[in-house]
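Fill in residues.
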């Protein structure tokens, strides 16, 4: 052995699926770590809620505790592994471990996505390290690659499939032509999706990971709160079929790009060409595609979750932390180019996909194309699909590169109003969607009425200019399914509130928030901002679940 023997004692907090995998790997590969690195890696303390968890993981009785304080304050422990997730008590575990001179290894992407800069500063001040390979992509060695292996590069682009649940759902929708709700229900029955899947399907899990990766890649803090997030809950099988016919595959991508001194970060469903390496990543696999100015393009692929893949990343961090003679700290500020900042999302440039129902008559398509052109949006491909439906046909457009600002302006001009109201208060439906009619009185009082226009099940939320109303206020059929008055809201200050309502519901509505530290919701659907971040408010009506994405940004 070239180096002297070193005993490294590990304290493990959390003995779930991953924690059990870590315990097994440390025990089964002990001799290999000793022979290869001169490290006698020992699991000295382990914390779980119940002894049965520790027993199942092969933990000795004397090493077990149900109090995490016993682990982080034990003088014998050199490295703490935090695997409980969430913000609390994970934050306290990190900081207490630092104060006792212990490195921390973690897979907690939510905590690190929100607070990695603060935690990194605390670790540096205490002379210890944070290792988080398992937080971004399970067993894929992407964090260490960005921290060490690609230091000779200026990273220009990161594009990743960072959530296995959503990739599984989209893969099945693509192969089977199934609808989102049906595949999600199957995934939940199989244990591939959580009973409350909001963090996955709303894109939050991928956004946490992108925040970490982009911060490392660009040597500047990319806060989770500033990552644009759009999940897959609105994806329809028809959109996937349209994309396939045009040579595209739909994936939920986490994208970070460096544009000069600007950085853009976004998570949303994205059509990618079938010949792109990411198009072939199927099922629950994750992948990260990188472009560096020196190395060019490369891709990393592997399982993004599971006991042993994630445990593999945890143990690699343990060995690195134990082997390091000098601690290298990731940088979250850019001294060379202090002007580097996040790009406004309206300035992003990319190609766009849009599907709409258009009246099947001469001149309609040309008027739509001209509206796009008037706003600087060029059409790359157009496809008219299927037979007439009430005198309308489905039309799909793929644009050339255009800014988000120009595209939104074009869509607003093409899209008619959801409903109109005349001076007598007569409301007329124009297109499927939701709007609010406000009546203002001379005494300053106001009254609001939420209007939901719902008819054909396959009607899109946006209808182009040149179409005729499919129904009017008197003749529109009754709603058959409950709907929310809003599916996406933004609150811009602490204490800011907005009420959303359910229409078409015949029973009691139960409201919940996915994260009450970000936003709360009352029994009448009033949402209150608590702290910057993202949460999902859910309305449960019988066996129906309705979600509203809440962004708290200030």
């Amino acid at each position: 052995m070239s180096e002297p023997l070193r005993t490294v004692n590990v304290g493990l907090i959390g003995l779930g699926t991953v924690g059990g995998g870590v315990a097994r790997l440390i025990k089964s590969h002990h001799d290999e770590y000793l022979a290869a690195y001169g490290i006698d890696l020992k699991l000295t303390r382990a914390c779980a809620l119940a002894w049965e968890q520790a027993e199942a993981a092969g933990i000795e009785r004397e090493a077990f505790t149900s109090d995490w304080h016993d682990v982080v304050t034990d003088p014998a422990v050199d490295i703490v592994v935090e695997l409980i997730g969430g913000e609390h008590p994970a934050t306290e575990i990190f900081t207490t471990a630092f104060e006792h001179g212990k490195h921390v290894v973690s897979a907690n992407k939510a905590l690190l996505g929100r607070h990695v800069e603060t935690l990194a500063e605390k670790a540096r001040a205490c002379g210890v390290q944070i290792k988080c390979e398992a937080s971004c992509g399970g067993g894929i060695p992407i964090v260490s690659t960005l921290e060490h292996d690609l230091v000779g590069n200026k990273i220009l682009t990161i594009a990743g499939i960072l959530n296995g649940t959503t990739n599984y759902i989209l893969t099945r929708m693509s192969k089977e032509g199934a609808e989102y709700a049906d595949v999600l229900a199957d995934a939940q029955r199989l244990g591939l999706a959580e009973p409350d899947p909001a963090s996955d399907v709303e894109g939050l899990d991928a956004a946490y990971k992108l925040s970490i990766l982009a911060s490392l890649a660009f040597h500047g803090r990319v806060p989770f709160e500033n990552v644009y997030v759009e999940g897959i809950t609105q994806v329809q099988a028809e959109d996937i079929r349209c994309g396939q016919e045009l040579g595209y595959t739909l994936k939920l991508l986490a994208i970070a790009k460096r544009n000069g001194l600007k950085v853009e970060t976004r998570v949303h469903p994205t059509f990618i060409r079938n010949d792109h390496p990411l198009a072939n990543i199927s099922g629950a696999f994750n992948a990260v595609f990188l472009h560096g100015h020196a190395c060019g393009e490369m891709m990393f692929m592997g399982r993004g979750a599971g006991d042993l893949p994630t445990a593999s990343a945890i143990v690699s961090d343990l060995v690195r932390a134990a082997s390091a003679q000098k601690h290298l700290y990731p940088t979250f500020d850019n001294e060379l180019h202090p002007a580097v900042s996040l790009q406004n999302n309206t300035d992003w440039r990319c190609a766009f996909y849009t599907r709409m129902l258009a009246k099947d008559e001469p001149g309609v398509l040309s008027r739509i194309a001209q509206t796009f052109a008037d706003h600087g949006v060029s059409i790359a491909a157009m496809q008219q699909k299927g037979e007439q439906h009430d005198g309308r046909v489905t039309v799909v457009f793929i644009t050339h590169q255009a800014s988000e600002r120009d595209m939104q302006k074009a869509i607003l001009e093409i899209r008619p109003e959801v409903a109109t109201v005349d001076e007598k208060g007569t409301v007329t439906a124009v297109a499927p969607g939701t709007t609010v009619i406000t009546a203002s009185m001379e005494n300053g009082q106001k009254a609001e009425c939420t209007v939901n226009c719902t008819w054909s099940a396959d009607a899109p939320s946006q209808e182009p200019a040149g179409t005729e109303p499919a129904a009017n206020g008197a003749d529109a059929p009754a709603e058959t399914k409950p709907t929310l008055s809003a599916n996406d809201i933004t609150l811009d200050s602490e204490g800011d509130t907005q009420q959303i309502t359910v229409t078409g519901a015949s029973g009691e509505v139960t409201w919940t928030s996915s994260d009450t530290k970000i936003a709360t919701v009352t029994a009448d659907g009033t949402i209150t901002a608590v702290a910057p971040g993202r949460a999902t408010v859910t309305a449960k009506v019988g066996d129906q679940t309705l979600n509203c994405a809440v962004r708290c940004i200030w």
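The longest strand covers residues 248-259.
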